[in-house]
Amino acid sequence: MNSNRIILGSEEWCGFPQLNIPIIKARVDSGAKTSALHALNIEPFRRDGLPWVSFDVHPIQNDGKTTVHCEAPVFDKRRIKSSSGSSEVRYVIKSRLSIADSLWDVEVSLTNRDNMGYRMLLGRQAMAGKVLVDPESSCLLGVPSEDDLHDLYKPTKTTRTGLKIGLLGSDLSLYSNRRLMEAGQERGHEMEFLQIKDCYIKLDGKYPEMHYRGGRILNEFDAIIPRIRPSMTFYGCALTRHFEAMGVYTLNSAAAITKSRDKLFALQILINSGLPIPTTGFAHSPLDTDELIKMVGGAPLIVKLLQGTQGKGVVLAETKKAAESLINAFKSLKVNILVQEYIGEAKGEDIRCFVVNGKVVASMKRTAAPGEFRANMHMGGTASLVKVSQEERKVAQLAAKTMELKVAGVDIIRGENGPLLLEVNSSPGLEGIEGISEKNIAGKMIEALEKNLKFGALSPATTSSIESVSGQ
Quick one: how many helices (H) and strands (E) in the chain? Predict the structure, then answer.
């Protein structure tokens, strides 16, 4: 009954001809149900109305240069638990597996296996009825030589048409991150998403290095686009600063991002440049509460947490008693807050100006939801196209320049005496502004990066030879 079954050891070399992966070393694991393939830059898209997924594979262990770009129809999307006990939602594809001159279709989940010993895991679902496993043996079907691997993944010299750009962020599925990846690829650049939590630093006076999950050294990037969520500000800025120390260009610098995230420091810098802001107070002692309220013109007033973001930690106190209670409550918790005058004439509206390389490339008006005082899209607010005045444009441009940000979302409200600056965001979202303006803002960010690096994508003088893998 078993004579037709293939005998495998605990590890074997196999292939996926439909994915242009001629050979890859797999861990044979009958304890795992679903097979898994090491994949990076996993991006869903649609082809002929059907869901597909594109991804990159480094088929050789400890080799981050040999890369095969793959595309396949999405077979499923399911939550899968790893051997470590953690679970994640993965794309699952169905592809033809090649083992010992035999071919059959198997389900394979796509995940980052950099911290695993094998680029491929062959699960029992793929082996059922086809193979038997001898766990005491290894590579019963043979081992390819280094020359074999070289021939199968033979590098060739090609003309470079773009930059190697890393997008440093926490979630590739976010609209902004996906759009930046697409915009870079459309302009001929090699884009790679770098998960912040998977990067780590080697501090060395002569040879500083950035390492990535699995031990890969990130030393081949021309530029980094930081997209750092507020909860990762300290670590994300440390990574950005280290890339800068390695001579890698960053679209926004770590120093600029750090300044923008400290609301009090940012306001101090902005007013020193003569920029108009709502009257704002900051104090530590509860004994100063009454004076603090008077300082900003009394109630109603706004109380802001220094570490708040996207409208979170922003509260309207409509009466003096409510303001006193709120301020004292925050102080008793030893939480730093700003107290700011309430601009009633703004009527729950503000303006977001998107600044790239010193120019306002798009702007939108955000209107608060009924019953809300903040123009917050996460709280049911709405957005519409708006034409900003020359004065508002100058405020936005000067704010970005003052904060030394190449890319910034500058929030302004219209007061009775002119525009007032609320905040400068170093990682502004693209979804709302692109949808309202119908402009390719992500593309403008990539163009800004090219200009700052003096990169001419179509100029022969700027091209150079790099290694590219056949089959990409």
Answer: 11, 30
Of the three residues 121, 152, 183, the one that is the final residue of a domain is 152
Name the DSSP letter for residue 247.
T
User: Residue 54: inside a domain, yes or no?
Assistant: yes
pLDDT digits (tens, 9 = 90+) for 424-471: 999 999 988 988 888 889 999 999 999 999 987 433 333 333 333 333
Distances (CA, A) of 469 to 21, 119, 158, 189: 11, 17, 10, 16
pTM above 0.70, yes or no: no
63 HSE (CA, 13 A, CB side): 18
333/382 same-domain check? no
Smallest Cα–Cα separation from 249: which of 450, 105, 11, 436?
450
**Euclidean distance between CA atoms 283 and 266, whole angstroms:** 16
Contact by Cβ (8 Å): 228, 168: yes
Residue 123: closest CA among 38, 192, 193, 28: 28
| 460 found inside a domain | no
Question: Which residues constitute the domain of residue 89?
Answer: 6-152
Rounded distance, CA 264 to CA 130, Å?
Answer: 65
- Tokens standing for 187? 């302009």
